[in-house]
Amino acid sequence: MESDEYRQITGIIVGGGNRGQKYAEYARHFPKRFRLIAIAETRIGVRKKLQKRYSLEDKYVYDDWRRLADSNVERLADCALITLLDREHYEATIKLAKKGYHILLEKPMATKLEHCKEIVQVCRDNNVLLVVCHVLRYLPIVKKIKELLGNNTIGKLISIQHIEPVGFWHFAHSYVRAKCCHYLDLSHYWMQPRRCTDISSFGKLMHFNRENKPIGASDRCLTCSVESTCPYSAKKIYLEKVSRHRKVSVLVPDIEDDENLDQVKIKVKQALENGPYGKCVYGDCNNDVVDQQVVILNFDDGATATMQMVAFTEKSCQRTSRIFGTHGELTWEGEDTLIHYDFLTQKRTVYEETDLSAAGIMSGHGGADFFAMDSFIRALSLNKPELIGTGPEDSLISHIMAFAAETARKENRVCKMDEFL
């Protein structure tokens, strides 16, 4: 049921890829709260699919977001969902914020620290709401952890341990961004009001390079003579069990909602023959993303946090967090269950989040995509910016931590946060 207290918010999609389509689903399920009226997307197939899905007029379907930012084009909606490629976030956010759009911005804010800082300043100067999609913060179970820490349920917080098992197939084909930014943000969130002061990091690209390319391997999986012995084969991952699951929808984003599986299989095969996902992971993919990394955070009261990312795992993105206090321990394995172990009673208490019925319709990140969008729309509709859990200044700190960690890794030193503020 949709409440009548909501003023309908209108929005535009700037970038119609996987993340843009996920957030846009809110309009399908809550049409009284949120209506999409325009899209900017370079790929004609994706444009047509989204135009059909959301009944958009031809005049509101753009092949370039810059046309929306043109001074001769009036502001079309209340907000913009910016889900472009990472390197395009900065320019789009600056220009659309100056036109008065409230911004939902996919992480990272930008690929340069100075651009992140400028985005925050421009949104502040133009009095527009900026929400960065560190969506895990919006999960009820994550908020429960924050509540328990605030109540000193485990005593004084001493340390946090995060593990990100990327998944062997996921890393080889999708891992092209700062996947662990969620963990840095959660460390910042759970440790507050403590302030991170020092960061160190170690890691490198150890396996996915030409030196480890199997003898006889070709540059594409579909024509490779050793494909059957390779666990990272695109043929195995995408083609052998074709469906409309997440992996295939990312590979072929213009799949129609009512398209049969035979048609889907043809499109997947074409994408693997011609597109980047069909290339050998050991070949010339210009890949410089580390396949294992450790980040160590030191906070102003002596508390610490560690984050470990590793590519070579069975589990895919099933994050684990353990939080250690003087009187107890919290364990969260990225699902809807949190375990509290009390040192005094030596008993376990299990907290389960049961009210996820609405989130089930937008299941990305365990329902976090829904909770983030819902908070954004409610904040705009009810004029309550306090409903936002990832505001600009707070998200900027998380980004600074990420830039500091990468500097520490590359320069093999401990970085002071004050260097980057």
From TrEMBL:
Pfam families: GFO_IDH_MocA (PF01408). Gene3D superfamilies: Dihydrodipicolinate Reductase, domain 2, NAD(P)-binding Rossmann-like Domain. InterPro entries: Gfo/Idh/MocA-like_OxRdtase_N, Gfo/Idh/MocA_Oxidoreductases, NAD(P)-bd_dom_sf. GO terms for molecular function: nucleotide binding. Residues 12-132 form the Gfo/Idh/MocA-like oxidoreductase N-terminal domain. PANTHER family: BILIVERDIN REDUCTASE A, BINDING ROSSMANN FOLD OXIDOREDUCTASE, PUTATIVE (AFU_ORTHOLOGUE AFUA_4G00560)-RELATED. This is Gfo/Idh/MocA-like oxidoreductase N-terminal domain-containing protein. It comes from Rotaria sordida.
